[in-house]
Write a structure and sequence with these properties.
The protein is an alpha+beta fold. It is 43% helix and 11% strand. It contains seven helices and four strands, in the order ααααβααβββα.
Length: 166
């Protein structure tokens, strides 16, 4: 994922235009173009939506409507570290609900939220079949399993301090 400090200036718009240059006017290319931008930046800023609209020949309002309709598209930058809490049955049987509560309390956010300094976010994730690691979370997609409650507290405090939880 590309990281840039500004996502609205001329250089950013130029980069988005290059990114979606292969897509053609007409509604069929809208979602693939949006997925490409989302994958690249981790979210879809308004300026990028306008560039996609220009490329696929649709009104910007219609493109923005599609972005906000589909829950998989973010319209704000993701947190530095996103904690994916496994909501699957094996993890919950092995203390997953307490793990969730620890992250919520230590980070001061609810499920789906992120800290005001953007260091950490928390979202609900699904079992991916690694149940032998229960209870577990993913930190930016990397699994952290067999968590004790002390592990959860330590990881949450590290994230709050700006560490990546490695
Ligand atoms: S229930 Fe959490 S990984 Fe399967």
């Amino acid at each position: 994922m590309r990281t840039q400090s500004t996502h609205d200036g001329p250089a950013f718009r130029r980069a988005v235009r290059e990114l979606v240059a292969a897509f053609r006017p007409g509604g069929d290319d809208l979602l693939p173009a949006l997925h490409k931008v989302h994958h690249e930046y981790g979210y879809i800023p308004r300026a990028a939506a306008e560039e996609v609209a220009r490329q696929v020949g649709l009104p910007a309002a219609r493109v923005w409507g599609a972005i906000t309709f589909y829950s998989e598209f973010r319209t704000e930058p993701p947190a530095d570290v996103t904690v994916g809490w496994c909501s699957g049955p094996a993890c919950r049987l092995k203390g997953g609900d307490r793990v969730r509560r620890i992250f919520e309390v230590e980070l001061g956010i609810g499920m789906g939220g992120k800290t005001v300094d953007n260091r950490a976010g928390l979202h609900m994730a699904q079992c991916n079949g690694q149940c032998e690691l229960a209870p577990m979370v993913w930190l930016n997609g990397r699994e952290r399993g067999n968590l004790s409650m002390a592990d959860a507290v330590r990881i949450a405090r590290e994230l709050k301090a700006g560490k990546t939880g490695e």
